[in-house]
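re: that chain from earlier
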Amino acid sequence: MTESIAWPAPAKLNLMLRIVGRRLDGYHELQTVFQFLDRRDELHFQPRSDGRILLSTPLPGVPWETDLTVRAANLLKQYKKPAQGVTISIDKHLPMGGGLGGGSSDAATTLVALNQIWETGLDHATLAELGFTLGADVPIFIHGRAAWAEGIGETLTDLDLPQPWYLVLAPDCHVSTAEIFSAPDLTRNSPRIKIRDFLEGDRRNDCLSVVRRRYNKVAAALDWLDQFAPAQMTGTGACVFAAFSDASTAQAVHNRLPADLVGFVARGINLSPLLTQIT
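^ sequence. v structure.
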């Protein structure tokens, strides 16, 4: 592998999200379904001989040393102690804090790419364990396949899902995941369902009603999109989405977006481009 390769970090959607309990350590027990999108960030890695880890494209308001990609690189370096360092650059296309997993995906791509570039030789299971310490969504991006997830998101069962076209809207607000998961009116005891129930149409997101009550812009985006197809929210938001059978229909709805809404059309995919790049 060479540093000139653009390493993909795709977005994800939560097609369903149920909160079925709460653990003694405060983490919530979930059932959710992950599917990737063909929209992504792209990362480049320039090996360094001085052992340092640098980020050449820091995000506004995020100190470079706290960026998830830098933390991921430092984590791998502490675990395997390679002599090399790296300069990381990110071509950012995914919105921050929208529930699309951009930061987690960037971290996962960093672990997978540097595992190859530094020749640290870790298998995917070990990389996923490391990634989990950075965030609960990191393992699904290392796993690289659409999946049913349980536990706190780390127990994965592969799914072969339809791959529709989605119109994704990004309301102009940042939803705090911590705020939503600590909200007193959040449902924390949803009955568990089977994969079959999801496949037959159970797409509930227990966070949606809480976010809708607190964030008017998310509510407005859901209401607008729901005119054209059943509107859903990914994770704790703020991004919302609807599925369409073909790109032209999704694009036609996108073309009707009011001036105060932004969005994009993307294909749902069951196999991450990161996984296909390394196999």
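The chain has two domains: 7-159, 165-269.
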